[in-house]
Amino acid sequence: MSERLSVAKQTIGKTILGQEQVIENTLVGLLCGGHVLLVGLPGLAKTKLVETLGTVLSLGARRVQFTPDLLPSDILGAEVLEESASGSRAFRFIEGPIFSQLLMADEINRASPRTQSALLQAMQEHHVTVAGTRHDLPSPFHVLATQNPIEQEGTYPLPEAQLDRFLLEIEIGFPDREAERAMLRLTTGEAEQTPNAVMGPQDLIDAQKLVRAMPVGEQVADAILDLVRGARPGAEAHPVIGDHLDWGPGPRASQALMLATRARALLDGRFAPSKDDVAALAEPVLRHRMALTYAARAEGVTRRDLVAKLVEALL
């Protein structure tokens, strides 16, 4: 299985150039059965990444552009009254775009809190309830949401409860010069290459089962607990955290980090995770589950800095 995952990663990398770490972390999120928040400036191939993942993994992918006037029914679907030829009337449920295996929620913070909350049940329970009726979502089901970190006018910050539903927050930066040079050649020619399907939905489900069956040593489990518990303000806070945080990661962060380290080990062809996996995934797992105090923001402290100091001190 790790060989097929490696081929899938390489295939995605031929289309999404210069973003190896982003590709790896996104695959880690999918292998955990979780959802991923992609944060980056416009034009950094966030949409292209989701499309490529859908093609390479043979997943049904759909995209929703979040706007302030978007309604929950635009995502979940709605019941409509239909009249048959005989004159009888009945309600029929029309599925929304959320009924897909890979849903891209583009600029999720542009929708109102009411619409954002429509995703909560689906992300956690993999089903939606419309007019009192439960509708199960396809399997596997993943949400890959995007967010612009600088243009905040007319946006609604994601509530903490929804941020916690995202297994990873992945920051996308600019590619290096050589990757951007190759990108110019690849994307401005007569025909753009399209990736081939490497895996299927059942292969992804099987890989997710392997991740959950992978053994984790006590040292790695202790490292995860030390890291997560040390990032919480209060009695157990590590000294490097100080009084910089209003609140920190909960138990869901420990679960996410445990699964993510296993998935990274599987991607790398290893049979068990190590402390290096914990260190590599600490930032995308913890960063969006931490809130800085006003004083810390005034001093220029960042969540990335705090996680880096915590990793250096504990691992």
Describe the structure concisely for a colleague.
With 315 residues, the chain is α/β, with parallel strands linked by helices.
Topology:
Elements: H1 2-13, H2 20-31, E1 35-40, H3 46-56, E2 61-65, H4 72-76, E3 77-83, E4 89-95, E5 102-106, H5 113-125, E6 127-130, E7 133-136, E8 142-147, H6 160-163, E9 166-172, H7 177-187, H8 201-213, H9 218-230, E10 245-247, H10 251-267, H11 275-286, E11 291-292, H12 294-298, H13 303-314
Parallel strand pairs: 1-8, 1-9, 2-5, 5-8
Antiparallel strand pairs: 3-4, 6-7, 10-11
Helix pairs in contact: 2-10, 8-10, 9-10, 9-11, 10-11, 11-13
Structural features, described:
With 315 residues, the chain is of the alpha/beta class. It folds into two domains: 212 residues, P-loop containing nucleotide triphosphate hydrolases (Rossmann fold, 3-Layer(aba) Sandwich), CATH 3.40.50; 102 residues, Helicase, Ruva Protein, domain 3 (Orthogonal Bundle), CATH 1.10.8. Helices cover 44% and strands 18% of the residues. It is built from 13 helices and eleven strands. The strands form four sheets. A five-stranded parallel sheet has the order 2-5-8-1-9. A two-stranded antiparallel ribbon has the order 3-4. It has a two-stranded antiparallel sheet with strand order 6-7. Strand 6 and strand 7 form a beta hairpin. Helix 8 packs across helix 10 and helix 9 crosses helix 10. The chain is globular and about 75 Å long. The mean pLDDT is 89.
Mean of all residue-level pLDDT scores:
89
Shape verdict: globular
The topology string of helices and strands comes to HHEHEHEEEHEEEHEHHHEHHEHH
Biggest sheet, spatial arrangement of strands: 2-5-8-1-9
Give me the number of helical elements.
13
The N- and C-terminal alpha carbons lie at a distance of 29 Å
In CATH, the architecture of the largest domain is 3-Layer(aba) Sandwich
Q: In percent, how much strand structure appears in the residues?
A: 15-25%
